[in-house]
Structure formats: structure tokens, C-alpha cells
User: Which sequence fits this backbone?
């Protein structure tokens, strides 16, 4: 189910949500990333994320991780084979890279993207996964049920950072970037929404009470967020936007991810209200007023839908997580996740609970700071390195043409049997005379 979110989900969503001339390139960026991440994940990235101790932020790769003996043995204390766990964690890693790519659509050199994907997976994603989900210094402290920090904050912050280094789209694309097929966009969004049942419901690696609660909470939060975003559009813009509804759906899915199985359903609905309003404000109001946000061309607003919503979900997890649900999910003897701040205040007669709630919020903030800082630094270093090999951004002439110039293909035949209108040839004028 999580794999279907990327292929075909995000492939369809990206190919439909962009201008027609970028449909092929945008879909292909997602398809390539899915394939490249799988090979890298099996060969070394899974062990870096979930292997034996090497550093406090990284595991140790082993060649034995691709052998039959390793892949069919039981996954730790879970009743599933290692191979299932390796593939499940792969689809998480793949969707993270593809989400990041949403910030770079419409101008990144495809060859630069081919180099960027394995480097970012190796040096950025694996560190977040090991640090928070496996044996890192935050692993048994942070509440991150299914990737609010590891996946969504990482992709949002890294995407925004990479967008800064790659540079903006062609000015005409920034000014006019309407989706080429809204119906297909909704189909891609549907794969995301329904596939999220596996995204959050699969995290317990079992069919149990936490699983069923996580699935229900996921859909409650998402529906609430979509409706809240839609009502804000109606109130302030007089029209309900389909694109806005998809953005609200996305922020709801992201926000509930770190808390899906450890909060009550009323809390999931409250999270949906905040997921539909806070990112709406940062995207629709703050982004337009801020010089800082305007300088960076984040094509699909990934920073708002993933970094902001992921941070919001992580902090709300630290407030609303219910003690008995935490104990049901975090069963390791090393787990020290505390109660949500709300419940520590409710149980204020017990001093340890009060301290536990504030301590947990401290860890939630520390985890967010670490993920943000690591992704800014590492993504910047990777972009600088790639730029020494190949241009990060397409040539200006290619930006004007789009898919046909890059891949020799176009998304839609305009007439005849797959034929296309001949491209008009415009004489190249030196930039000095063009400015004159």
C-alpha cells in the first residue's frame, strides 16, 4: 500500500499537478527515484538505517544483508521475515525522496537528480531513520509513530534547501503554473490517501488494536484537515479550490503520521483542525508576505505541506499522546517515551508524570531541531558536490521547451496518431541584446 503511494500515486500526482510541458519530466523524476532507492536500500542504506551500531547517528552496512540467510530470518521480536521489513522500510525511504522532489519540479537537471537521489538517501535519510527509529541517541525518547520527523520534516526541509541551491523556475512558469489535468491529480491524491492506511497502519508490524486505531485516526484527521482547508479557501477567496483540498488532505495525512496509533480519535480530529489551518496560513498568507519564502521556489509547497505539518504533528504528539497507548506501541525494554503533556497535567498529583510530560516535549523539540539542522547542512553539501559534476539547473532554453527538450517526449499528442506540432525555432539572441 505504501509502495502504491509512490508508484503510481505520486507519479500520477506530479505528472498532473504541473504545467503540461513538465508532465513527463515530473512523473519520471518520481519513477526514477523509486527504482534507484530500492537498489541503494538493499545494498547498503537499510543497514545504515537499521544495522548494528557504528555511530550514534548511523548503523554499520554488511554485505550479508542481501543473502537468503539474512532475509528470511525473523525480524527481531516481530513475527515477520527480515525481507518484509526491508521492503517496508524501503517504500518509506522511497516516498521521502520523491516528496522532496516536489520542491524541484520544473527546472532541476535530470542528470543532477540521478546523482542527488542516492547521495541524499545515503547521507541524510539514513541518519534520521537510525537516530529516531533504531538505535540512535533519540531512538527511545521521541514519539514518532510513522515518520512525522524521519519522513516529512526531512523531505520538507531538504526539499526547500535543495530548491534554494537549484534556483527558481523560468519566470513564466512561476507566474503561471496551472495543473494540466486536475482529474488525474485527484487520482494520484486518492492513491496517497488510501495508501496511508498502510503507511500508518503498518507501523506496528502486526494486526492489533494499535493498528486499527492508527488507520481510523489517519482518515479522521485527513478528512477534517481537508474540510478546514476548504472552508478557509471559501472564507478568504470565495471559492473552494480542488488544489487547496488536496493540499489540506496532504497536511492532514502528514500531521497525524507521528501520532496515529498513540492518540485518541478526538485528538486526531483536533489535529486535523490544526493541520488544515496552520499550514494554510503559512502557505497562503505568510509565504506571500515573506521575502525569505519568496526567494526560494518551492514548486509544490513541500515545505508547508510536509515540514510545517510534520513539525506540527510531532509537537502535538508530545502533547496529546496517551500513556496507555504509548506503552502498547513502544514495547521495547529500552523505550522511555513519556506521557503527552496534556496527560501529565491531568495527572498532576503525580510529580513524575508532570516532569515526564515536559521532558517529552523537550525531546520532541530536540528531535525536530536535529532533523532540520542535519537536512539543511547535508542537503547543501550534496547540492554543492553535485554542482561540481553537472549543472543543478537545466539550461535556459530547455526551461522554455520542457519535456521535449529533456526527454524527447511529450505527455499528450496534440493531433494525429501520436504526432506533435513542430517546435517553433526562435533565433538565439545574445542576452545583452535581449535585455535591450
Assistant:
Amino acid at each position: 500500500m505504501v509502495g502504491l503511494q509512490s508508484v503510481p500515486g505520486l507519479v500520477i500526482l506530479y505528472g498532473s499537478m504541473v504545467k503540461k510541458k513538465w508532465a513527463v519530466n515530473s512523473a519520471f523524476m518520481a519513477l526514477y527515484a523509486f527504482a534507484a532507492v530500492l537498489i541503494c536500500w538493499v545494498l547498503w542504506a537499510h543497514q545504515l538505517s537499521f544495522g548494528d551500531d557504528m555511530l550514534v547517528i548511523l548503523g554499520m552496512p554488511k554485505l550479508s544483508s542481501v543473502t537468503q540467510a539474512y532475509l528470511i530470518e525473523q525480524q527481531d521480536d516481530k513475527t515477520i521475515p527480515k525481507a518484509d521489513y526491508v521492503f517496508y522500510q524501503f517504500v518509506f525511504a522511497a516516498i521521502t525522496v520523491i516528496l522532496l522532489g516536489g520542491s524541484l519540479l520544473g527546472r532541476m537537471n535530470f542528470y543532477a537528480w540521478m546523482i542527488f537521489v542516492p547521495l541524499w538517501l545515503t547521507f541524510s535519510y539514513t541518519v534520521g531513520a537510525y537516530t529516531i527509529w533504531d538505535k540512535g541517541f533519540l531512538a527511545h525518547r521521541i514519539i514518532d509513530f510513522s515518520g512525522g520527523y524521519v519522513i516529512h520534516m526531512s523531505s520538507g526541509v531538504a526539499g526547500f534547501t535543495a530548491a534554494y541551491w537549484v534556483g527558481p523556475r523560468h519566470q513564466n512558469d512561476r507566474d503561471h503554473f496551472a495543473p494540466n489535468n486536475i482529474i488525474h491529480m485527484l487520482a494520484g491524491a486518492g492513491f496517497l490517501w488510501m495508501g496511508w492506511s498502510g503507511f500508518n497502519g503498518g507501523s506496528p508490524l502486526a494486526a492489533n488494536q494499535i493498528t486499527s486505531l492508527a488507520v481510523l485516526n489517519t482518515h479522521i484527521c485527513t478528512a477534517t484537515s481537508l474540510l478546514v482547508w476548504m472552508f478557509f479557501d471559501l472564507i478568504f477567496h470565495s471559492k473552494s479550490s480542488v488544489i487547496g483540498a488536496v493540499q489540506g488532505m496532504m497536511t492532514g495525512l502528514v500531521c497525524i503520521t507521528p501520532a496515529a496509533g498513540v492518540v485518541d480519535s478526538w485528538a486526531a480530529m483536533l489535529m486535523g483542525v490544526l493541520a488544515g489551518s496552520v499550514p494554510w496560513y503559512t502557505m497562503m498568507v505568510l509565504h506571500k508576505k515573506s521575502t525569505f519564502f519568496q526567494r526560494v521556489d518551492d514548486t509544490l509547497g513541500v515545505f508547508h505541506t510536509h515540514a510545517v505539518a510534520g513539525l506540527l504533528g510531532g509537537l502535538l504528539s508530545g502533547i496529546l499522546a496517551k500513556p496507555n497507548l504509548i506503552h502498547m506501541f513502544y514495547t521495547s525494554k529500552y523505550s522511555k517515551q513519556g506521557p503527552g503533556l496534556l496527560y501529565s497535567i491531568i495527572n498532576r498529583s503525580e510529580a513524575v508524570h508532570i516532569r515526564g510530560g515536559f521532558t517529552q516535549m523537550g525531546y520532541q523539540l530536540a528531535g525536530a531541531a536535529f532533523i532540520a539542522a542535519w537536512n539543511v547542512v547535508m542537503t547543501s553539501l550534496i547540492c554543492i558536490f553535485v554542482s561540481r559534476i553537472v549543472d543543478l539547473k537545466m539550461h535556459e532554453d530547455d526551461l522554455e521547451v520542457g519535456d521535449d527538450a529533456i526527454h524527447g517526449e511529450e505527455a499528450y499528442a496534440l493531433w494525429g496518431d501520436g504526432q506533435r506540432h513542430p517546435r517553433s525555432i526562435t533565433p538565439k539572441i545574445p542576452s545583452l541584446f535581449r535585455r535591450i
Observations:
- The first helix runs from residue 2 to 17.
